[in-house]
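Morning, I've got a small favour to ask if you have a moment. The fold is given in discrete form, as structure tokens running alongside the sequence. I'd be grateful if you could look everything over and explain what you see. No rush at all, and the record is pasted right below.
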Amino acid sequence: MKTIKISRQGFSLHGMHSWMKFFIFVLSKKYNVIVDPIDPDLIICSNLYHYKEGDYDTFLKAPVKDVKKDNVKYLYVSGEVADFASPVRDNPKLYAIGYQKFEHSKYFRMPSYVIDAWTLFDEARIYDTPFNWLLEKRNYEEIIKNQIGFCSVTQASDQPYRGIIFDKLQEYKIVSASGPWRQNIPSASEHGVDKYRWLAAEYVGRNDGLTYREKIDFFKKYKFNIAIHLINMPHIIQEKLLHAYVGGAVPIFHGNQYILEEGFNPNTFINLHNFENNLDGFLDLVKRIDTDPNLHRSYLEEPIFINNKLPDYFNIDNILSFLEKVIES
């Protein structure tokens, strides 16, 4: 088995180790993978953190520095809004995996929620398979046993449209916000979320999974969840819709007007893009789901994806085939 040495750049020092572990998981099906920040063959890079002089990567246990190796390859990934096309076209050593839709031999389309789903299997230990759980039928009776409230939201950033939806929902019932944005539940309370505790040094390498697990446990207590991206961007899919599903909530989604092109079942979530100029109609739908047990059941028991089929970018063999091309080319 061929050995491949990999490293990472541009990620947060205290978290996002799940990304690195995902690529190790996939590559290990073909290669003997070694994490080597000094002499890597492949650098997984991102735009999520800008290192300062003297920064120390707590996962790789080595100083962050530029690699001068001539034949090193770069794989650009990001879970945030990013330009994948220009770097791929302009840099012969750079390949990319991202959410944008375009064709290029050095690009593989895989939105970042694939890694978020895998993290629920790996670091969070919520599931015992990487992706098959997305196809399992959800148990309505078990889900509603945990639901004690109306709607949840967990966000740090301010987003104007999210605020509009929050206020609209509160015309009907109280929305429970664990914060920091619009926080109305103390983090130390029985129903609160204290994600910052997982940033402590003893949790390095598990930060993402532990944070996700606590947030999802919070979502499980509520019938709906506000799942709105910070930026409305075509074709992007982050963790928010996924975490609402896992929490047994009906997602209230906004952030990608082409979301149905990904195969999501429109009968399992509220698509705010259908109510851009009709928020009264949106609230009427929420009220109907909230008061009609049969309608609520249908939203939870229908498959998440049309025909209960995952998009091709979830296929590990497809991802590995692209990574093999990166390494061997």
